[in-house]
Amino acid sequence: MTSSPSTAGVPAAVRQLNVLLTLVVGTVAILLFLLILLAALGRADRWATIAVPIAAIALIPVWIAALVIRYLPLNGLGIAAIVTAIGAVATLVLDPAITSILGEPAPLPADLSRWQSDTIDANVLFLVVAGLVVVSAALGVASVVQARITRAEARALRTPSGRV
User: Fold this and answer.
1) Measured between alpha carbons, how far is residue 94 from residues 28, 33, 100, 106 in Å?
2) Which helix (H) or strand (E) holds 44?
């Protein structure tokens, strides 16, 4: 593996952890930004009770997706399937979690037979999550098919001695 000009002087051990280091630095930067912003608004007391929990909940899917993309040894379709599933779960969980932190009432459940102002958000959310689940499943199936084709092609290329 050749190094790019931006990582030319960086030790190999650090290059291996670049995604993790980027996530840590980005997370710390976001938390500091929120602290500075709330302090400037005179609401620094809300940093630990509201800003940090919301940032943590919002960053968890980002961390998981980034680590999946970087460290799981799957083909691109498999990784896309997992990241899409993470997006579906995040879409489903983030809004109620943030609503709970803010102390607001829970939204009404989806009711696809009613499309009125009190149910439209939940209905759209349900359809988005359902669409993400379908896309994730399709990507998962495509990943398995692609992996089998790749293995079959690799076997066909082998010589009788078992070497490629």
Assistant:
1) 20, 21, 10, 12
2) none
For residues 65 and 86, is the Cβ–Cβ distance under 8 A? yes
Mark residue 157 as left, alpha or beta (left: phi above 0; alpha: psi -120 to 50; beta: remaining): alpha
Q: Which of 47, 56, 72 is nearest to 23 (CA)?
A: 56
Q: What is the pLDDT of residues 35-60, one digit of tens each?
A: 999 999 999 999 999 999 999 999 99
Average pLDDT, the chain: 90
- Amino acid type, 80: A
Here the tokens at position 57 are 């909940």
> Using one digit for the tens of pLDDT, what is the confidence trace for 135-146?
999 999 999 999
